[in-house]
Amino acid sequence: MSQALRSFAPRLQPASERSFGSTTHPQAPAFPRLASLVSRALNTLRLLDRPSHLHRIARSRRILATLARFRGEGAGARAFAYLRTVDPYTFEEVVLSSIEAAGFVVLRNRRYTGDGGVDGRVLIPGTFGETLAVQVKRYRSAINPTHVGDFNRAIRAGGHAGGLLVHCGRTGPLTRLALYGTPIELVSGSALLNLLLRQRAPFMSASRER
After folding, report:
1. pTM of the model
2. Residue 141's CB: how many other CB atoms inside 10 A?
């Protein structure tokens, strides 16, 4: 694992409560709007022969616009209830679109099955092509702890610097124990809402968040 991501070993606490030093954690991109535009153009070119993918990506952006209108008391609960009505493949694209909107270059998969447990990749700004693997689970209940080990193996096999495990279900104590010592950042609960409703990526250095 690179020095840039040594702090990815999770503590047994929610992602929103962790503190990462700016020298050991990925920084926000210097030009987030440009990075977002580059990501959109790059993926459109890569997926020109995948019209169903492009359709889901377009829908994912409409879903993000809908989520942005959720305000006031109970907005989080309404957002999660809405997300659980979205089909799993589109939910993957919603997450990737929100990371893209936060100003990161995303590499979307060209297929939804046989992806080896990685649903997309995020280029880490300031590195020579290092990536974070992204795995998205649209859970209604608690996440399965065995999925953490499977994802960790996929991260190592793919040579990724770390991983983002994103889900809208519950995180039990066994899953938090399984995360300990891995390069996986759990994105759920308030961290997921910040990402989807405000496009604030949980892996940004706090000092550089927009």
Report:
1. 0.82
2. 8
| pLDDT at 74 (0 to 100) | 85
Q: What is the DSSP string of 22-83?
A: TTTSPPPPSSHHHHHHHHHHHHHHHTTT-HHHHHHHHHHHHHHHHHTT--STTHHHHHHHHH
Q: Residue 105: enclosing H or E segment and its boundaries?
A: none
User: Residue 162: which CATH number?
Assistant: 3.40.1350.10
**Could you tell me whether strands 131-137 and 184-187 are parallel, antiparallel, or unpaired per DSSP bridges?**
unpaired
Torsion of CA 89, 206, 170, 100, to 10 degrees: 0
CB 140 within 8 A of CB 84: yes
Nearest to 183, CA basis, from 26, 53, 10, 47: 10
Work out the mean pLDDT of the chain and round it to a whole number. 82
77: left (phi over 0), alpha (psi -120 to 50) or beta: alpha
The number of folded domains in the chain is 1
- With a cut of 50, list the residues of the chain below it in pLDDT: 1-24, 205-210
CB neighbour list of residue 76: distance below 8 Å, 6 or more residues apart: 70, 190, 193
**Domain with 71 in it:** 20-208
Ramachandran angles phi, psi of 107, nearest 5°: -110, 105
Helix (H, G, I), strand (E, B) or coil at 5: helix
Look at residue 166 and tell me if it is in a domain.
Answer: yes
Containing H/E element for 204? Answer: none
